[in-house]
Amino acid sequence: MKHIILFLTIPFFQSSFAQDIKLFDNIWNLHNLSIGGNNYIPPSNDEVNFVSLNFFEPDQMETMVCDVLSADVNFTGLDQFNLFNAGSTFDDCQIQANTDFEILYLDNFFEAHLNDDFNYFIEIDGNDEKILTITNSSNDQAIYGDHILSSQDFYSSQFAILPNPAKNELFLTSKYTSGTLTLKIFNIEGKLLSTQTLEVANKTSIDVSSLTSGIYFLNIEDENGNTTTKKFIKQ
């Protein structure tokens, strides 16, 4: 049996704007959550396959991890809304990582800002897919797409290497702002050539001058065990 917790808020509307049909035409899947400048990848496991956000008639919103958060939506301006009459089920996650993410997403991002306006922006990416970015009053952001993005796809998108091909120096750019990374370089035969651990920076220089010309792979691993691999060419 599900229990429901209600968060009673009394809205004071100065004006009411028409609903944005673009929000209601899609089922939005969470790609990334940014809280306090730190990025968090949504869980993808046996208990939580993905985190979705739905807007539906008449002016209501629902999102869930294990608990389901539902609320009425009031559009207070162009690309702006607030939430009221919010309620949440009481379905505890059994996996600790899901519980931790649920606190960040439902409690910190949404429920802590029920009396404030949320700003949003919808754009089309290079693959003709819609991207929805919602920003709360603390400037935290939740980024959704109208398609399901695997955690591996998202993690890979956080890094880029340049120039490619490289001569003496390879630069790793990162969207992460804190933490440590372990970088490993492998040759095309899979042999490990070098390993280094460093603090995350927006742009990191990697010395590749000692490598002979050919194809190599840079494996990137963060302190949470997330990994991705980038291919580069040494001239």
TrEMBL record:
This is T9SS type A sorting domain-containing protein. Residues 161-233 form the Secretion system C-terminal sorting domain. It comes from the Bacteria. It comes from Aequorivita flava. InterPro entries: Secre_tail. NCBIfam families: Por_Secre_tail. Keywords: Signal. Pfam families: Por_Secre_tail.
